[in-house]
Every structure is written in structure tokens, then in C-alpha cells.
Amino acid sequence: MAVPKSKITRSKRGHRRSADALKAQAYVEDKDSGELRRPHHIDLKSGKYRGRQILEPADDI
């Protein structure tokens, strides 16, 4: 049976649990369209990613 050799301090326990907190998603302003988008994701309004046309631009309805 596994038994811990010594007590884990509150500090060590807290450092381990700090990664469990949810982080807010980051958004950046697109250079071309000015829309907010996630980093490393396609801009859905213009359909571009890193200056290349990937998708057809979305039509405003």
C-alpha cells in the first residue's frame, strides 16, 4: 500500500492546484478587418489566416 513519506505543505499543494483554475480566453484584434479573433485561428469574417485566403468571406445577412 502506498503511504506518503511526509506531509505535503499547503504551499506545495497550492502550486499543484494553481493549474486547475480556468483561464479567460485570449482575443486579439485582426490587423485586416479589426474584428476580435482567437490567436492562431481563422478570421471568420474575412476568411483569412496569416494573410492567406482560406475560407470564403461571410456575407452579412
Outline of the structure:
By secondary structure, the protein is α+β, with helices and mostly antiparallel strands.
Task: Chart the SSEs and their pairings.
Layout lengths: L9 H8 L10 E2 L6 E2 L10 E2 L2 E2 L8
Antiparallel strand pairs: 1-2, 3-4
What does this structure look like?
- With 61 residues, the chain is α+β, with helices and mostly antiparallel strands.
- It has a domain at 23-55.
- Helix content is 13%, strand content 13%.
- It has one helix at 10-17; strands at 28-29, 36-37, 48-49, 52-53.
- The protein has a two-stranded antiparallel ribbon. A two-stranded antiparallel sheet has the order 3-4.
- It is rod-shaped.
- The N and C termini lie far apart (65 Å).
